Amino acid sequence: MKKIIFFLVFVLIVHCTLKIEDCLAQWEPDVRLTNDPSGSFTSRNNAWNIASSGSVVHVVWRDHRDGNPEIYYKRSTDAGVTWGADTRLTNNINNSFSPTVSISGLVVHVLWWDYRDGNGEIYYKRSTDAGVSWGADTRLTNNIAESSYPSVAVSGTLVHVVWEDIRDGNLEIYYKRSQDTGVSWGADTRLTNNTSNSEYPSVAVSGSFVHVMWRDLRDGNYEIYYKRSTNGGVSWGTDTRLTNNTANSYDPSVSVSDSLVHVVWIDQRDGNYEIYYKRSTDVGVSWGADTRLTNNNAYSEFPSIAVSGSIVHTVWMDRRDVNYEIYYKRSTDGGETWGLDTRLTNDTAYSYFPSIAVSGNIVLTVWQDNRDGNYEIYYKRNPTGNPTGIVNINAEIPVEYSLSQNYPNPFNPSTKIKFAIPVCHSSGSWNPVITLKIFDLLGREVATLVNEQLSPGTYETEWNPSNYPSGVYFYTLKTNGYTETKKMILIK
What we know:
- By secondary structure, this protein is mainly beta.
- The chain has two domains: about 25-380, 6 Propeller (Neuraminidase), CATH 2.120.10.10; about 390-490, Macroglobulin (MG2) domain (Immunoglobulin-like), CATH 2.60.40.1930.
- Helices cover about 5% and strands about 50% of the residues.
- The chain contains two helices and 37 strands.
- It has helices at about 1-20, 20-25; strands spanning about 30, 40, 50-55, 55-65, 70-75, 85-90, 95-105, 105-115, 120-125, 140, 145-155, 160-165, 170-180, 190, 200-205, 210-215, 225-230, 240, 250-255, 260-265, 275-280, 290, 300-310, 310-320, 325-330, 340-345, 350-360, 360-370, 375-380, 390-395, 400-405, 415-420, 435-440, 445-455, 455-465, 470-480, 480-490.
- Strands 2, 3, 4, 5 and 6 form a five-stranded antiparallel beta sheet that branches. It has a four-stranded antiparallel beta sheet with strand order 1-29-28-27, with no helix packed on it.
- The longest helix is centred in the first third of the chain and has 17 residues, at about 1-20.
- Residues about 1-25 and about 425-430 have low confidence and may be disordered.
């Protein structure tokens, strides 16, 4: 009997060693989100069609069931286990394309481009109650040329939008922001200025740092370019060329976690399309080497990236299996090393244009799939694929909010922060959205440790500011009706 048990344990250990991704991260079955005889389509990889905060997951797509393309929305309130009804967000006789979604707390922001004005313009819509109800459409651009392919990122009350625009005779990248969660909007800002095309921008934000990537033809072939703002989009630095080879580099997707900026894109330097990756560890000041993430003789295209602390997730569409399937890969050390490719779909039809998001421990992806005879929206999740540093350390339910002093303090290289969430809170029956953020002496946000819905309990998380200087920092716990700030000292 002991020999049998030993053998089973040995087999399990060997299996986990050979297929570590399978042991650490289990993907659940595909879920079909739409069901109508017309096509339902996700967007290109510069836009995210899925976003999540705590247990609420939001999905947007383009749908042809109404005779012309309209923008549709769907949500789950139990972390993607079950889903509500389809919600039509647009209603006009012209075409609406390429939706993208981003969230901050209970405010959901959706953008797309729309032909109701005779040419393509960027439109915006928001919900202030996590998708229960929606405000009116807001036209963000107004010119006689095409404005298309928006990308959106949100940090607190600041909403950042980028898109490609042909008002200057060739395609250029433009930017716009709202400082009041989408109530009002500033002027259009032209980010690029050259005689060649600048296309398919992708935007990410962390605190006051806004990062924009795009593909650019100014060098004779398409290369990936980057630009950043260090003051929340008020002013912008110079264009930075991130790739340099004689082949084409296409369609970046960017995500950021504190000082780490991550980008994935399609690259033709190997004779066929492969997925490449690059990172900056100093908020975009300098950049590491290009890293090839895929290696097969078929096309790997349109990657989407999402980051949570030191865990980096990317999905893409891949033709190594004859037809396009969705593949996934992750890094657990901030992009230093990468795990194996994981095939997420397996059917004889095409699976296209995946988009990825993370919330807490859950990884979520959505894509368009024609296994049903027409394109439908499909979804998949991994409930344990994003292990966070947030730990519930006490089974007792606290009677009030509290934020403890970090320990050790002063500290080097890391410190732990404990906080408590009671069972009663002002946000009603839902678990509250909790944010725990780090600020420097000037009040600039330097890190977000928590930004999600959490159940009542006592939690502990860790901050390891390896890329930040010695000095005084402040950490703030915030939720509906409660805010507390404490001071800590980093000594190196």
